[in-house]
Amino acid sequence: MSEALIRYKGVEIHQQELCVLNEVNLELHKGEFVYLIGKVGSGKTSLLKTFYGELDVISGEAEVLGYDMLHLKRKHVPQLRRKLGIVFQDFQLLTDRSAYDNLEFVLRATGWKNKSEIKDRIDEVLQLVGMSNKGYKFPNELSGGEQQRIVIARAVLNSPDIILADEPTGNLDVETGFAITELLHNISQAGSLVIITTHNMQLLWEYPGRVYRCVDHLITDVTSDFAPKE
What gap in Å lies between CA 141 and CA 56, rounded to an integer? Predict the structure, then answer.
């Protein structure tokens, strides 16, 4: 098994003073494809937020990419986030610039300076997500699925070890949702740890991975429930 990128042991997570998850025990590795399932309010998104320092870990042992999340100083959060790719359900693209310029903005913000290297990297990720010919378009000229592909391109720009996707297919039709999940599945096979929250159980059968269910403030490995039947 490859190195663990996320290790949680006996972790407790609160949202606005309320305990949403306790006794969280996880060890997630490079190249794994992981689903978080459960009802709205069960703690899936809260758990995701602790991985990138948006929500504090209250107690236990929590390590993400070598960072101690229990004692992570605010000033170190940006360093951690540069090593993560985050895919939001609502895209969060800058609407006043093209898809290409959205990607260039991120690279420049994370220290890239060489113009030809920036162009090469953007061309590379646009090709990866099947959007080579759409870089000139503005977000409002793209379909929901196309916008989500640009968001995934943005998430992989800096070759992150971990990609977090919060309901990435939630605003998409079924067929497009499958295509987006397949894209993320391929990215995990290339070596990134990909973690997805979803309500779409069909995805779990089509693109198998490890499955964790959040229910009654606990998180349980239910991968075997979704194993192919003999």
Answer: 38
Pick the closest to residue 31 from 214, 195, 183, 216 (CA basis).
195
Q: How far apart are CA 147 and CA 131, in angstroms?
A: 10
| pTM recorded for the entire structure | 0.92
Q: Enter the tokens of residue 17.
A: 């003073």
Per-residue pLDDT of the chain (230 residues; tens, 9 = 90+): 567 999 999 999 998 888 999 999 999 999 999 999 999 889 999 999 999 999 989 899 999 999 999 999 989 998 899 899 999 877 789 999 999 999 999 999 888 999 999 999 999 999 999 999 999 999 999 999 999 999 999 999 999 999 999 999 888 889 999 999 999 999 999 999 999 999 999 999 999 999 999 999 999 999 999 887 65
Q: What's the CA gap between 135 and 99, in Å, rounded?
A: 5
> In whole angstroms, what separates CA 88 from the centre of its chain?
8
**C-alpha–C-alpha distance, residues 84 and 126, integer Å:** 18
Asked if 130 and 149 touch (Cβ cutoff 8 Å), the reply is yes
For residues 173-184, one letter each, b for 16 or more C-beta atoms within 10 angstroms of the residue's C-beta and e for the rest, the string is: eeebbbbbbebb
